[in-house]
Q: What sequence folds into this?
C-alpha cells in the first residue's frame, strides 16, 4: 500500500479533530462511508455537533457542500429544484436545488413528512434526479449525510424503510465525556479562530474509491459476511436465540456495503486485503438500521446490537 495515502487519511482525521472534540470512532466511520461512496445517517440528541461534523468534513475535503434544514413544510422541489417559465424566451428554465453538490447535509431529516424524505431516494441510489420529466446526473462524489433526532422525540416522522436501507451506515452520536466537554468549552468560548485546511481533493477521493474496490477479499471472508447477513434472515439455522425478536432481516445491500466498508477499513489501515476484524469493525453500523425488530423486542428491551452480538458469537469467523 502507498504510505502517502495513509498519511492523507491520518492528516484528515487530525484536521477534523481541530473542530470535533472526541468522537474518534464517529470520525473514522464517517471517513469510511466517504471512501466507500455510501450515504450516512447520524442519530443523536440535538446539540451533539452532528451538523458541525459534516460541515467540517466538507471543508477538509474541499468539496461542494449544501445544507437543507428539514421542516414539516419542506417540499420536494425545495430539495431537487423546479422549472420556471421565462416569459422573454418563452421557455422553461431549470432552477437547480441544493441537491446539486458533493456533500448534502440533510439536517434533521426525520422532521419532514415521508413525501419530502422520499425525494432523496433516487439521488441516494442512482446518483441522479428527475425534475418535471428531465433527468440530471449529479456530480461525483455525491454523498447524503443525514442527521436525525431520536424517533421518540416530538415532531418527528420515522424514515420509510426503503429510504433507511439506502444509507450505508447508521452512526449513534452519544454525549461527550466530562474531559471532552471541558475541551469543547475551551475551544468554543474563546476568540480563537480555528482554520480548517483542505486535505483531500475531489480527484483524490475518486481515486481512493477506485483503489478501494481493488482491495483483495478472500472467498472465506465473503462467505463469512454472507453468513452473518443470512443469520439475520434465518436465525434458527444458526441457533440465534434472540432470532425470535427479528421481524425482517437485512437486505442484499447489507452484503455489498459490508464488503465495501471492510475494504475501506483495510485501506485506511494501510492494507491491501480484508480480514475478519475489518468486517467486525463496521458490521454493527451496517446492520443496526436494517434489522427490523418485533414489538416484543421493545417490551423486553432487546436491541439490534444485542442480536448482532449474538450473531457474531454464533457465526464462525475465518
A:
Amino acid at each position: 500500500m502507498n504510505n502517502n495515502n495513509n498519511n492523507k487519511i491520518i492528516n484528515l482525521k487530525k484536521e477534523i479533530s481541530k473542530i470535533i472534540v472526541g468522537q474518534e470512532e464517529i470520525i473514522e466511520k464517517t471517513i469510511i462511508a466517504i471512501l466507500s461512496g455510501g450515504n450516512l445517517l447520524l442519530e443523536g440528541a440535538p446539540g451533539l455537533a452532528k451538523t458541525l461534523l459534516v460541515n467540517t468534513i466538507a471543508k477538509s475535503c474541499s468539496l461542494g457542500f449544501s445544507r437543507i434544514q428539514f421542516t414539516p413544510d419542506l417540499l420536494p422541489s425545495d430539495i431537487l429544484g423546479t422549472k420556471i417559465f421565462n416569459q422573454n424566451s418563452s421557455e422553461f428554465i431549470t432552477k437547480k436545488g441544493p441537491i446539486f453538490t458533493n456533500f448534502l447535509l440533510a439536517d434533521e431529516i426525520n422532521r419532514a413528512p415521508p413525501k419530502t424524505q422520499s425525494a432523496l431516494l433516487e439521488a441516494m441510489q442512482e446518483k441522479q434526479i428527475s425534475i418535471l420529466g428531465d433527468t440530471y446526473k449529479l456530480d461525483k462524489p455525491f454523498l447524503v449525510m443525514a442527521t436525525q433526532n431520536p424517533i421518540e422525540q416530538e415532531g418527528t416522522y420515522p424514515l420509510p424503510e426503503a429510504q433507511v436501507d439506502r444509507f450505508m451506515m447508521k452512526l449513534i452520536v452519544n454525549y461527550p465525556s466530562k474531559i471532552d466537554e471541558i475541551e469543547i468549552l475551551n475551544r468554543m468560548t474563546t476568540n480563537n479562530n480555528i482554520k480548517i485546511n483542505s486535505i483531500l481533493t475531489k480527484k483524490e477521493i475518486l481515486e481512493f474509491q477506485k483503489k478501494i474496490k481493488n482491495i483483495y477479499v478472500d472467498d472465506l471472508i465473503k462467505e463469512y459476511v454472507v453468513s452473518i447477513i443470512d443469520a439475520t434472515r434465518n436465525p434458527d439455522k444458526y441457533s440465534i436465540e434472540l432470532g425470535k425478536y427479528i421481524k425482517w432481516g437485512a437486505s442484499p445491500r447489507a452484503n455489498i456495503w459490508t464488503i465495501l466498508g471492510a475494504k475501506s477499513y483495510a485501506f485506511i489501515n494501510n492494507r491491501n486485503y480484508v480480514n475478519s476484524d475489518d468486517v467486525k469493525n463496521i458490521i454493527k453500523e451496517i446492520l443496526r438500521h436494517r434489522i427490523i425488530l418485533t414489538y416484543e423486542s421493545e417490551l423486553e428491551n432487546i436491541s439490534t446490537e444485542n442480536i448482532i452480538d449474538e450473531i457474531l458469537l454464533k457465526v464462525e469467523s475465518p
